[in-house]
Write a structure and sequence with these properties.
Layout (H helix, E strand, L loop, with lengths): L16 H8 L17 H8 L8 H4 L13 H7 L1 H14 L3 E4 L10 E5 L11 E5 L9 H6 L11 H9 L5 E7 L1 H9 L1 H10 L1 H22 L5 E7 L3 E2 L2 E2 L3 H20 L5 E4 L8 H7 L3 E3 L8 H8 L4 E3 L4 H6 L2 H15 L6 E2 L12 H19 L3
Parallel strand pairs: 1-4, 4-5, 5-8, 8-9, 9-10, 10-11
Antiparallel strand pairs: 2-3, 6-7
Helix pairs in contact: 8-9, 8-10, 9-10, 10-11, 15-16
Length: 391
């Protein structure tokens, strides 16, 4: 692996995935608190590493005039084949002190129902300074005819190009984390959340069919990815909530989504590998379900919903907890604010030396100033040295 030429942070430590695994499985002996994130935005990587992201992601979903593009055939596969992109993600994870590098299987659910607006962040993700949003009103599937005509991916069409490449170049002590696409997320995106909500009452059989199609390919991809020697864990990104509750009722989640989550967890656990859940929003009413499904860790927390310390107190003896440094503090606070909040969290969640990983409340978004992100990591390393004599 070629190091970055002008990195803002290059951590002088050896990756220790076994320590991360021990932490996620809530095992002893106590040790340093590792870092964990679902992913980092391209703009963040550019800023931290001091180099240009080698691919304009805008072209994957937007046309040259900045409007939604027609679905591109195998766009994710083309992304993963860009060796420079994969190398940059690896450098970012290694040089900032993570024990794993995240990578995606190439699963395509083609759609063009995006809304486009300007990106006000100082660290742009895309060259045109655009940010895309999900169109929640509609999507490519509205009825059975659309369902039958849709170009569904199959297990045979999934690409593992990025994972295959990383499997051959992993630094000693480091593993691959396979980031899987969400089952609820993609099901709602294919219809638009509004149409999905109506269909729960008007076309429940169609909802069941869509969810099963999405889940089958995600689970099959996990089963194959788990066979790679250097794949160490999985992270499912499946947002299920908002500020005051779940996006759909807990009953809908229990009837339509959690059975497939359970099957996914069982598939990964059959290979003796942890699987983590990233899901935003207020999930208090379904936390017992998430734990019962068997996820090894839960990620994404927001102070105004429930501070991560309280989450750890309530459920940390049953599931590992990840992150919780609030995005608002990271985005708008001072470096000192970030350091203070990081230490507050570690004093509660990190004291046992297991069952907690330090990270943001969501992801390393491009609107988080580089200085604040690096301050969080630096404070975590200082805290580990003070409490465990090592990072």
């Amino acid at each position: 692996m070629t190091p970055s030429e002008n990195p803002s942070a290059q951590v002088q430590r050896k990756p220790n995935f076994e320590n991360l695994r021990r932490t996620l499985l809530r095992q002893g002996p106590p040790g340093p608190v590792p870092f964990a994130e679902l992913f980092a935005d391209p703009g963040t990587m550019e800023s931290v590493l001091g180099e240009k992201f080698p691919l304009d992601l805008r072209g994957l979903v937007l046309s040259s005039d900045g409007e939604p593009a027609a679905p591109a055939e195998s766009s994710m596969d083309r992304l993963l084949k860009a060796k420079q992109v994969v190398d940059m993600i690896l450098r970012f994870c290694y040089e900032t002190g993570y024990d794993y590098v995240y990578m995606y299987p190439g699963i395509e659910f083609p759609r063009s129902n995006y809304l486009v607006t300007g990106d006000t962040a100082s660290q742009k993700n895309w060259s045109a300074g655009k940010r895309i949003w999900q169109d929640e009103e509609t999507g490519p599937i509205q009825n059975w005819a659309d369902f039958e005509a849709y170009p569904w991916p199959t297990p045979q069409t999934v690409s593992y190009t990025g994972i295959q490449y990383l499997n051959t170049v992993m630094p000693e002590g480091m593993k691959i984390c396979v980031d899987l696409p969400g089952i609820l997320e993609n099901s709602t995106w294919l219809m638009g959340f509004q149409s999905f909500s109506y269909a729960l009452f008007d076309q429940p059989d169609l909802i069941k069919a869509i969810v099963q199609k999405v889940a089958d390919v995600v689970i099959a991809a996990a089963a194959h990815a788990a066979t790679f020697e250097n794949v160490g864990m999985f992270f499912l990104g499946d947002d299920m909530g908002f500020y005051s509750g779940t996006l759909v009722s807990p009953k809908v989640l229990r009837d339509y989504i959690f059975p497939y989550h359970r099957k996914l967890v069982e598939t990964v656990h059959a290979h003796d590998k942890p699987i983590l859940l990233h899901s935003c929003g207020n999930l208090e009413k379904v936390m017992d379900d998430i734990i019962d499904v068997g996820f090894d860790a839960k990620h994404s927390f927001e102070d105004k919903i429930m501070p991560v310390e309280e989450v750890y107190r309530r459920w940390g003896d049953r599931i590992a907890i990840i992150g919780g440094v609030d995005m608002d503090i990271l985005a708008r606070g001072s470096e000192e604010d970030v350091r203070r909040r990081t230490r507050q969290i570690l004093e509660v969640c990190g004291a046992n030396g297991t069952g907690y990983c330090l990270g943001t409340g969501n992801t390393v978004a491009n609107y988080v100033p580089k200085e604040n992100y690096l301050a969080m990591l630096d404070e975590g390393r200082k805290w580990d040295r003070e409490h465990f004599g090592t990072e």
